[in-house]
């Protein structure tokens, strides 16, 4: 799961030659807390079970609709919790997984992405609300449909009216291309 990959990243010392392996000698005590939210109990149970294998996992698991994720309040100060990093892995049509889920292609229609767009945008906007100024948000789908990807990002940027910006990401060994600006 993507959440467990994030948990692994929090534990790894990136200066270690064995970073990003599951070598416990390369694990560092993380300085942060990962809050994972999902609506499906079966995925949460799987996450909890798998996270128990990670030493001292800094994980809080919640279940709820991410569009209406509640404001959390620091008990010590009474102030609202804001996050340095937010990862929105939103529900989608899944058309990007057609290679491993062959039956999906037979069910796909152009409307598949449209059915998710509004929910994806609401989740993304809520993620931005929970972010500290200067924080980083990553938006993820397993869709190739620009209505679920570029259109959601574009609508969120428009809604934010200049208060957020996209940033270039450089991942060694991965060739990235700009997102689509137009489509039919």
Low-confidence stretches: 14-22
Indicate the radius of gyration in whole angstroms: 18 Å
Shape, principal axes of CA atoms? globular
Strand count, sense and barrel status of the largest sheet are: 2 strands, parallel
Distance between the termini: 32 Å
Using DSSP, what is the number of strands?
4
Number of separate helices: 5
In a few lines, what is going on in this structure?
The chain is α/β, with parallel strands linked by helices.
Relevant terms:
184 residues, alpha/beta, two-stranded parallel sheet, 5 helices, 30% helix
Description:
- 16% of the residues are buried.
- This protein is 30% helix and 15% strand.
- α4 runs parallel beside α5.
- Strands 1-2 form a two-stranded parallel sheet.
- It contains 5 helices and 4 strands.
- It has helices at 2-11, 41-51, 103-107, 111-129, 150-160; strands at 34-38, 59-63, 83-89, 131-140.
- With 184 residues, the protein is an alpha/beta fold.
- β1 (34-38), α2 (41-51) and β2 (59-63) form a beta-alpha-beta unit.
Question: What is the fold's blueprint, element by element?
Answer:
Elements: H1 2-11, E1 34-38, H2 41-51, E2 59-63, E3 83-89, H3 103-107, H4 111-129, E4 131-140, H5 150-160
Parallel strand pairs: 1-2, 3-4
Helix pairs in contact: 4-5
């Amino acid at each position: 799961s993507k959440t467990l990959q994030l948990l692994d990243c929090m534990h790894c010392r990136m200066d270690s030659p064995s970073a990003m392996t599951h070598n416990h000698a390369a694990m560092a005590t993380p300085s942060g807390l990962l809050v994972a939210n999902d609506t499906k109990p079966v995925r949460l149970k799987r996450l909890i079970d798998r996270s128990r294998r990670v030493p001292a996992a800094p994980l809080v698991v919640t279940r709820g609709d991410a569009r209406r994720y509640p404001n959390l309040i620091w008990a010590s100060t009474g102030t609202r919790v804001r996050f340095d990093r937010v990862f929105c892995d939103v529900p989608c049509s899944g058309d990007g997984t057609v290679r491993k889920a062959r039956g999906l292609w037979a069910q796909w229609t152009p409307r598949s992405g449209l059915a998710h767009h509004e929910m994806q945008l609401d989740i993304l906007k809520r993620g931005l609300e929970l972010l500290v100024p200067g924080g980083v948000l990553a938006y993820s789908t397993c869709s190739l449909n620009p209505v679920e990807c570029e259109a959601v990002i574009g609508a969120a940027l428009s809604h934010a009216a200049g208060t957020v910006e996209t940033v270039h990401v450089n991942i060694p060994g991965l060739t990235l291309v700009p997102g689509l600006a137009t489509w039919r």
